[in-house]
Amino acid sequence: MLAFLSLLFFSAPTVWRPLTPLPFESFNTASQVPKDELDRVLQQASRGYNKTLIITVLNKAYTEKNGMLDLFLRSFRLGKGTKPLLDRLLLTADTDVMWLRNPFLKLNQSSEIDIQFTCDGFNGRPEDESNPLNTGFFFVRSNNKSIALFDKWYDARNNSGGMKEQDVLLQMIKNGTLRERGIRTRYLDTRYFGGFCHDYRDFSRVTTMHANCCRTVRAKLIDLSLVLEDWKTYRNGSVVPHNPHKTCLIDSWDELKGH
Ligand SMILES: *[C@@H]1O[C@H](CO)[C@@H](O)[C@H](O)[C@H]1NC(C)=O
Ligand SMILES: *[C@@H]1O[C@H](CO)[C@@H](O)[C@H](O)[C@H]1NC(C)=O
Ligand SMILES: *[C@@H]1O[C@H](CO)[C@@H](O)[C@H](O)[C@H]1NC(C)=O
Ligand SMILES: *[C@@H]1O[C@H](CO)[C@@H](O)[C@H](O)[C@H]1NC(C)=O
Ligand SMILES: *[C@@H]1O[C@H](CO)[C@@H](O)[C@H](O)[C@H]1NC(C)=O
Ligand SMILES: *[C@@H]1O[C@H](CO)[C@@H](O)[C@H](O)[C@H]1NC(C)=O
Q1: Where is the secretion signal located (predicted)?
Q2: Share of the chain above pLDDT 70, in %
Q3: Closest residue by Cα to residue 77 from 247, 243, 235
Q4: Are 220 and 214 spatial neighbours (Cβ–Cβ below 8 Å)?
Q5: What per-residue confidence (pLDDT) applies to 35?
């Protein structure tokens, strides 16, 4: 059986938490969940759908009322063919990615490809390691190679003196760690897996939309809410006005000005 694993962010500390009500007794959402409990949740959530799991990591700041988590879940409900994926969603969500269509339909199905990354910009060459990857959304085929890589990545990050997990991974790609382990990567087209770095929003194609190139949670919330409003307009069959990611632009600009 194939096993897929999709990670949306990867950071500690982790709070394991099932998203949709799973048919077993009370689940402790505190940080100390026994390993066998987690194993049970994993099994439950990965049933069917080629054992696909959507894993996201909870960030406390995002879980406030009307916060990023609410917005994230709304995108699944308003998206096209994304609602059933909520059943796959195991852990919630330090996530600034809106799921507007089912991304699994736009991923390369080849079993030879181990990891597929979204990028801040796409140079048209899916195999080119110089595409600027973004770990906000990526897809991992679970196999011995990728499991070993995640162990390595975890160790490298733990010993990196506070480097961000994305930067540690970038370093591992640059210094050939993935290549020497035979890990095959692909970079995903921003036309489908879009983001604010690239103001490209073709709603007839957009699959996921990431609030990258945006510094503050506040700005992400405002601009992602606008994306969802535009999406609703699009789904209604109306012409979508061009709304730039104004708040993100201004916040980032303020940040730059301060330096
Ligand atoms: C499961 O994987 C097979 C082979 O890659 C694919 O044809 C099928 O569509 C997948 N099913 C789902 C539900 O993703
Ligand atoms: C998926 O990857 C395989 C292996 O590299 C490649 O041959 C194929 O063309 C890719 N398929 C798509 C739809 O990009
Ligand atoms: C993966 O690792 C397990 C445990 O070490 C081993 O039994 C299995 O044969 C390996 N699978 C492949 C495809 O190498
Ligand atoms: C992380 O690193 C610290 C110090 O380098 C070490 O003591 C600890 O065991 C490591 N944690 C894990 C889970 O590997
Ligand atoms: C590559 O970079 C990673 C992450 O910093 C590090 O752990 C690893 O030892 C490096 N490997 C080589 C061959 O330099
Ligand atoms: C979508 O259409 C419905 C019914 O015509 C309307 O009530 C609603 O306001 C529209 N929503 C948007 C976002 O345009």
Answers
A1: 1-16
A2: 73
A3: 235
A4: yes
A5: 60
Predicted local confidence at residue 15, as pLDDT: 33
pTM: 0.76
Look at ligand 2, atom 7, and give the residue with the nearest C-alpha: 110
Looking at residue 199, what DSSP letter applies?
A: B
- Residue 194, strand partner residues: 209
Give pLDDT tens digits for 147-187. 899 899 989 988 988 888 889 999 999 999 999 999 999 99
* 2 CA: nearest ligand 1 atom: 2
**Residue 31 pLDDT exceeds 60:** no
Q: Which of 55, 51, 52, 50 is nearest to 38 (CA)?
A: 55
Task: Starting from the CA of residue 239, give the closest ligand.
Answer: 6
Which pair of tokens denotes residue 7? Answer: 């990670």
pLDDT at 87 over 80: no
Closest ligand 2 atom to Cα of 184: 5
28 lines ligand 4 (CB under 6 A): no
Long-range residue pairs from 247-255, CB within 8 A, at least 24 positions apart, any chain? 247/218, 247/219, 247/222, 247/223, 248/196, 248/211, 248/213, 248/214, 248/215, 248/219, 248/220, 248/223, 250/219, 251/214, 251/215, 251/216, 251/218, 251/219, 252/213, 252/214, 252/215, 252/219, 255/215
